[in-house]
Amino acid sequence: MPGVTPSSPAEASSATRNEPMTEKMTGAQALVRALEQVGVDTVFGIPGGAILPAYDPLYDSTKVRHVLVRHEQGAGHAAEGYAQATGRVGVCMATSGPGATNLVTPIADAYMDSVPIVAITGQVASPLIGTDAFQEADISGITMPITKHNFLVTSADDIPRTIAEAFHVASTGRPGPVLVDISKDALQSTTTFSWPPVMQLPGYRPVTRPHSKQIREAARLMTEAKRPVFYVGGGVHKAHASTELLELAELTGIPVVTTLMARGTFPDSHPQHMGMPGMHGSVSAVGALQRADLLIALGTRFDDRVTGQLSSFAPHAKVIHADIDPAEISKNRHADVPIVGDCREVIGDLITAVRAEQADGRKGDYSEWWRLLNGYKETYPLGYEEFADGSLAPQYVMERLSALVGADAIYAAGVGQHQMWAAQFIKYENPGTFLNSGGAGTMGYAVPAAMGAKMGRPDKVVWAVDGDGCFQMTNQELATCAIEGVPIKVAVINNGNLGMVRQWQTLFYDERYSNTDLQRVKRIPDFVKLAEAYGCVGLRCERPEDVDETIRKAMEITDVPVVVDFVVHQDAMVWPMVAAGTSNDDINYARDMAPNWEGGE
Question: Which reaction equation describes what this protein catalyses (predicted)?
């Protein structure tokens, strides 16, 4: 746990003698003190009856900044954005009942994407638990399937230890959300605060070091394979292993694909990068996986959006699967070489083992493989339709954002077409620069996540790339940004529709557009006026020739949030596409246009 400077002579004396810090205080004071001790500097939340006792000592804290959000969902996503941008545990706080249940969506989101957050909720007084008291909800029971662990605390004495345990569990092993639900009487009772506490987690022993025999077997298979591929997931970024991945890739010469959650973990500009795989992945990445004879899956879980029809996914490939969570190994696809361990440790050991293979004269020959894959890259690059009426193509907006804002910025995307365009057409060179809701697909993620990321990394330019549908779910957090001085920038890709749903209606429902029209023609709402009402700067761009000037204008404004309404063509679609439930072999790179897989062979 990070150290904290003692705040009184008695504490200083105790600290210098290496003795535990002890002091009488309320449970609420113990909660705030524990948060300070574990190094928390920012909490996103909203007060209410059951959690109110905690807000009183929080008012006096000089180490913990509380950010008053406008909706608890915003608090949860902001904690996620903070965690993803900093690598530290994000913290959100809410009261009992509806306050706590409003955190369910971001908690589920964090669980799916392995984001370390701690959610602290107030609960009704312990004698009232189970009586259907005012604003009572069994949030521990509700969130049990979507938390890494959760706690119900009814004694003030347990608060410091529980906070220490919560942060340890959230940040170690496979990261994830932890809920701490504290009854109101526990917050109000008196206790003796002691730090550091003795944690009681007897069954929690995440394995980080991989087995050496499995590493050697993996290195042997990599050397013998003719068509190997590194299939890289978000776990590599979570393990801070992008440097090691680059070294291993260059050592072996094996092509790399990076999933949606791993964008930036391997540089887009690197010649070995094949792109993003999956439903809206590049032809070269999808083709590489489908024609591989060996998948080296690192920190990834064989998600259905990557595999398509599972039975036809990479049909000729053996699988090396490395993950810190043993439950993921062979869950969806049998692993020929299962490796349980932290990806940074795994990749480091693989580097050593491959070097040993090469020193003994065994080195993989992938020349034919590269001829085929480079043919895919040249023949089927990412592209998009430009509209004859001069309307704005959303992909062009992404290309210009990438060119003018650059690879050092952080981009947070909502969910839908704009998310895919941001993943495809913005070039990512650095890990942790693309934040999005991958597993849960949560509309409304982008704005609060961008806020949390900017507060965690104030030195970074942060853009939220949002759709007009997503934006209307959590744009109230623009008020928080304006008041708290968090100058994020929001690119609203406004096609007047729930775009991804409309795309499916176009392709699979005979163009029957049931309840996807968001009434852009009437400008309800007018996003420029809405931005101004929230104390932000609002800009609008409707023509390709104005895109660069609008982005530059947004970049020049650094003291308040900026919202740019990019009005794009409603019929723009995301390509390539693998229809849900079909084989990746059936990918279309444009409507009714499929690659000739055998052409390069």
Answer: 2 pyruvate + H(+) = (2S)-2-acetolactate + CO2
Report which of 153, 143, 206, 211 is spatially closest to residue 178, judged by C-alpha positions.
143
Active site residue 44: no
pLDDT tens-digit series, residues 253-288:
999 999 999 999 999 999 999 999 999 999 999 999
Q: Give the DSSP per-residue string, 467-520.
A: EHHHHHHHTTHHHHHHHHT---EEEEEE-SB-HHHHHHHHHHSTT---S-B--T
In whole angstroms, give the CA distance from residue 462 to residue 405.
Answer: 10
pTM for the whole structure: 0.95
Catalytic residue among 72, 80, 136, 399: 72
Clarify whether 532 is annotated catalytic.
no
Whether 135 is a known active-site residue: answer yes
Catalytic residue among 148, 184, 377, 454: 184
Catalytic one among 274, 443, 451, 500? 500
Torsion of the alpha carbons at 18, 19, 21 and 24, rounded to the nearest 10: -160
Residue 462: alpha-carbon gap to chain centroid = 15
SS3 content of the chain, % helix, strand, coil (to 5): 40, 20, 40
> Is 224 one of the annotated active-site residues of the chain?
no
Give yes or no: 193 in active site.
Answer: no
Task: Indicate if the alpha-carbon torsion angle 292, 294, 300, 304 is positive or negative.
Answer: positive
**In contact, 296 and 272? CB cutoff 8 Å:** no
Set 24, 134, 213, 387: catalytic member: 134
Q: How many beta carbons lie within 10 A of that of residue 23, not counting itself?
A: 16
For residue range 422-455, what is the model confidence (pLDDT) as tens digits?
999 999 999 999 999 999 999 999 999 999 999 9
Whether 267 and 242 have beta carbons less than 8 Å apart is answered as no
Query: What gap in Å lies between CA 464 and CA 467, rounded to an integer?
Result: 10
Which residue of the set 1, 11, 63, 135 is catalytic?
Answer: 135
Position of tokens 């393990």?
239
Q: Are residues 211 and 339 in contact, defined by beta-carbon separation less than 8 angstroms?
A: yes
